[in-house]
Recover the amino acids of this structure.
């Protein structure tokens, strides 16, 4: 008998939003610290930051509490995330598309800098 697991979409959405906010701040600060943010045009920088924040948000939504609690938290063990096949495919697709867009934007920026 197969058990039909339903995804907890509210928890997935909340973890995605929190991960995207933290990921966006982290990516902007890391790009500003390395000086890459000053060499990239505004719209390309926005796309890179949005894609990075979506990628980190999707990863955090997939892992949820396992991302920061881990297996060594023994007093109250973490509740494993409830995902359906659709939620795993959706979050994995968001992460893959984000990585591909980051590579496309980075290579486009590299080609433009070589032509100038």
């Amino acid at each position: 008998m197969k058990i039909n697991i339903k995804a907890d979409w509210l928890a997935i959405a909340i973890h995605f939003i929190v991960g995207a906010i933290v990921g966006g701040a982290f990516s902007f600060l890391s790009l500003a610290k390395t000086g890459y943010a000053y060499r990239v045009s505004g719209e390309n920088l926005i796309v890179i930051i949005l894609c990075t924040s979506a990628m980190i948000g999707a990863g955090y939504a997939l892992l949820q509490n396992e991302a920061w609690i881990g297996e060594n938290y023994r007093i109250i063990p973490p509740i494993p995330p409830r995902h359906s096949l659709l939620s795993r495919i959706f979050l994995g697709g968001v992460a893959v598309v984000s990585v591909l867009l980051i590579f496309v934007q980075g290579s486009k920026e590299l080609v433009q800098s070589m032509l100038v």
Observations:
- DSSP finds four helices and no strands in the chain.
- The chain has a mean pLDDT of 78.
- The first helix runs from residue 9 to 34.
- The radius of gyration is 17 Å.
